[in-house]
Every structure is written in structure tokens, then in C-alpha cells.
Amino acid sequence: MPLGISFYTFQTISYIVDIYKGTIPAEKSLLDLALYVIFFPNLVAGPIVRAKHLIPQLACDSSVNWTQIRSGISQIVWGMLKKVYIADPMATIAREAFARPESVSGQGLVLGTLAFAVQVYCDFSGYSDIAIGSARLFGIELPANFNKPYLAYSITDFWRRWHISLSNWLRDYLYIPLGGNRRGNLRTYANLMITMLIGGLWHGAGWNWIAWGGFQGAMLSIERATGLSSAPTSKVKHLLRWLLTFVLVCTSWVFFQASSLNSAYVVLQRIFTWADGWIPVDYRPLFYISIILLFDWWDVKQQWMNWAEANPKWLKWIACGMAIALMFTFAGASSSNFLYFQF
Known about the structure:
The chain has 343 residues and is mainly α. Among the domains are: 5-58, no CATH class; 66-153 and 231-300, no CATH class. 70% of the residues lie in helices and 0% in strands. The protein is built from 14 helices and no strands. α2 (30-38) packs across α3, α4 runs parallel beside α14 (312-332) and α5 crosses α10. The relative contact order is 0.14.
């Protein structure tokens, strides 16, 4: 398939629809339009950018902004650390557990599922950080794509935080045109299911992807019907809702990682029955998921960005050290592709 076809297809659809609705004027410059479609940092894995957000920045005549460049470098370093030193090691554990799930114990499959939860988050958010940082080097500001998704208190809240540009695109160009929540409860639930099923099919043409999308749509509908989509009213409720949401999100990742719907069924069946079998002696997923939750809770990324912008000399040496470390890392082994390159 052509490189980045799904992402630039989304961007051109939004451009055409926005012109049709009169939201934005048609672009007169073919060069600016072409650059909007094939802007390389976000071309292959997002974020999905709207024309009204990006095209005006392409036409802006501005001088070099060194503060913006330092910010871009610090975000690239953060993204590379997540991808190379967290996502890739977890990918090995997840692949090992899901390769032959019928022979892996329930405990091993739980560890494999947690490893994939870490992998998919650090891999995709790492790419988004690199894309946003790379664009910032050119004076272009791309929209944020993640906002601490594993701290969500509901599936509804999770989709406000996870792959934000896709969530907003599906809402504005699919869910709302279908009628949104304006035509009664049953129609709202149907619209949620249709939107998430199509979101699942976008990730892959297989029954496991349909099941993943259907699971997400069902959870969103249940939350809307029961009022659980609203914010919890106490700290205890918030903690319990967060724990339930995290378990549901990790359960949905089984469909995402499994090679087929039958394989996903085997994984879930062996987890819920706590089946005996081979246990990978590797508990790093527990450590990494704890680190991710703590870093998001304390907003360590923003603290790093602020420190790096205030200490440009130290940032220079850290960036050079990171480049040298990556050369040694890649010298003896090849890193896996970004996960979302396949979608």
C-alpha cells in the first residue's frame, strides 16, 4: 500500500468536506495544498491534521524561533526514549506471549497483555512526540495526540485522551453526520456502534478488529446509558472507575494484538480461567506500566519539556548523548517499525 495512505486520505476527506460545508475556503495555492497533504512528520502515523490548522501555518512568514527549536528537540528525545527503550523491549514479550497462547499460562498472558499495553502506548505516543517535535523544528505546531490515556476514569474519557486526532475526526466526520446524539437514545447507541466498528475496520480488515471496535462501541453505549461517562464525584469512585477502565482497555488490547478472533478468544479464556502452562519469567511489564502511570500522574513529560527549554546547554549535550546511545543501540540489532505504520 502507498506510504501513509490512510492518514493523508483522512486529511483530504476532511479538507473536501470542510470546503463543501463552507467551514474553510478552497486553497488557491496547489503547492500549499500538496504540502498539507504530504507534510512528512505526520504523514505515516499522524496526528491527523485539519487544513484549517496546518495550511495557515504554511503561509506564515516568520523568522527562526530558537525556543521553538529547543522545544522540538526535547520532544523528539522524549519520543525516542519511549519508542526505543520501552516500547521495543515490551514488543518482544507481547509477541512471545501471543504467538502460541494455547501453551501460555493465564499469568503469562496477563503479563503479555500488559506488555502490549505498554508497547502500543509508548510506541504510538512516542511517534506522535517525534512527529510533533520534528514539525516544531520548522515552526509548525501539530495538535497533541495523547493526554495521559491510562489515567482515564471511563472509556468515554479514554477516547478523549487516546489518539485524539482520530477520535475528533470520527466524531466530526462520521458520528455527528450520522445524527450524533440528536435523534434519541437508541439512535445514539447505534451511531456509537457504527462509528467504532468503522474505526476498528480502519485498523484492519479482520474479525478481531471488528470485535475490538464493537467492544469499544458497546462500552461507550453502556456508559452513556448508565451515566458512567460523567466524572466521578469522589476520590474512591474515581479510583474504582479508573481501575475498571484500565482493565477494560487492557482487555480490548487482546483483540488488537491477537492474530485472529479465535486467538483472542483463547487468550481471554485462559486468562479468566487462570489456566496452567508456560509462564514467561519476565515481570518488566508490571514495572513499566507502574512507571507510565506515575510519570503521567506527575506530568513528568511537561516538567522535562519546561526544564529543557530553560537549560539549552544541557539539552544540547543530552541530545548528543541520545544520538550516540541510539547508534550503539542500533549497531547490534534492528529496531522494530512503529506499530501504526501498518494501519
